[in-house]
Amino acid sequence: MNIDQLRNWFPNESACRQFFENARWPKGRICPHCGHHVSYVIHASHRQNPYYQCKSCKRQFTVTTKTVLHSTKLKLWKWIQAIHLIMNSSKGISSVVLARMIGTTQPTAWKVGHAIRRLMDSDQFDATLLTGIVELDEMYVGGDPVPQPGVTHKRGKGTSKQ
Q1: Which residues, at least 6 apart from 28, have a Cβ–Cβ distance to it below 8 Å?
Q2: Mean pLDDT for the stretch of residues 72-99
Q3: Measured on CA atoms in the order 85, 90, 94, 96, is the torsion positive or negative?
Q4: pTM for this model (two decimals)
């Protein structure tokens, strides 16, 4: 996907916000403070982005509350652009190049890059994602056999390893 196709998917800030809301709350809004499922939209003319208020704890939140995007001043479109560039760069991307591509300063791009890499950290994900039958092609599990004098061990497909 190139930047033009990405821009067609996310034509404005509300489409970006809707994407993040669907990704964070696929089964409906959940309060990040108390975990309650009922919340209300707060309408205010001076706010561009929608805010929500939890029915249970009465605290306000947005889609970015308690995430790495919390209290960001950047538009969500720039975050999506940065995610796209970092994910599609084969050898990584420097903060200087990222800053030039998304139109920010280098320190801002450095913070954005580190926040996105923190999102991609494997410790962030649930360890139960690989359950049931998992298929691997030509994978031999286990270490090398214990060396014994005068004994040659088969290699590769000739082994009895699964």
Answers
A1: 37
A2: 91
A3: negative
A4: 0.68
Report domain extents, the chain. Answer: 1-23+67-124, 26-62
User: Which residue is it, tokens 């923190």?
Assistant: 118
Task: Name the amino acid, one letter, at 154.
Answer: K
Written as six digits, the tokens of 10 are 């996310």
Report how far apart, in Å, the C-alpha atoms of 46 and of each of 11, 77, 102, 121 are: 22, 21, 27, 36
Single-letter residue type at 96: V
The CA distance from 115 to 158, in Å, is 46
**Residue type (1 letter), 41:** V
DSSP string, 10-67: --SHHHHHHHHHHHH-TTS---TTT--S-EEEEP-TT-SS-EEEETTT--EE-TTTTS
Token match 């590769």: residue? 156
The answer to whether residues 52 and 39 touch, using CB atoms and an 8 Å cutoff, is yes
What is the pLDDT averaged over residues 134-162? 71
Tabulate helix, strand, coil % of the chain (nearest 5): 40, 5, 55
Q: Tell me if 68 sits within 8 A of 75, measured CB to CB.
A: no
Q: What pLDDT score was predicted for residue 43?
A: 78
The owner of tokens 């049931």 is: 132
